[in-house]
Specification:
globular, 69% helix, 5 helices, single chain
């Protein structure tokens, strides 16, 4: 019982927090993401993957529908975010003492944990 509740909390926290990033991009567009992809020599159309990784995946993760799959997609999304925007944060510490990659690594490691642990009992489709 406690382990299943812990898995639910992980899913709710990761999905809920990441969903805000997706909603922001839905409201303001993905132009900056397209620009970063093009700047790295990749096609701008890949930017639409942000909607999958930051809206669809978090929603289905919250519901517990194939959580391992959607958490894996979130992990890939976060690795792309690290590569495109945060990689230079690897060696930076802010004036408040936070690591430059703190939030993106939090999302990445939580997604990997859910991929390994599965959804738990409180899910629409347990895995």
């Amino acid at each position: 019982m406690p382990a299943n509740f812990g898995k639910l909390l992980l899913r709710l926290m990761l999905g809920g927090m990441l969903l805000f990033h997706g909603i922001y991009k839905l409201q303001h567009g993905i132009g900056p993401v397209k620009g970063m992809l093009i700047g790295h020599g990749l096609p701008g159309i890949l930017a639409y993957g942000v909607y999958v990784g930051e809206i669809i995946a978090p929603l289905l993760l919250i519901l517990g529908f194939y959580s391992r799959v959607w958490a894996g997609i979130i992990a890939v999304n976060m690795m792309m975010a690290i590569w495109l925007t945060h990689f230079k944060g690897l060696t930076t510490i802010s004036t408040f003492g936070t690591w430059g990659m703190e939030s993106v690594m939090f999302y990445l490691m939580t997604a990997i944990a859910i991929t390994l642990l599965g959804s738990g009992a409180y899910a629409i489709k347990r895995d």
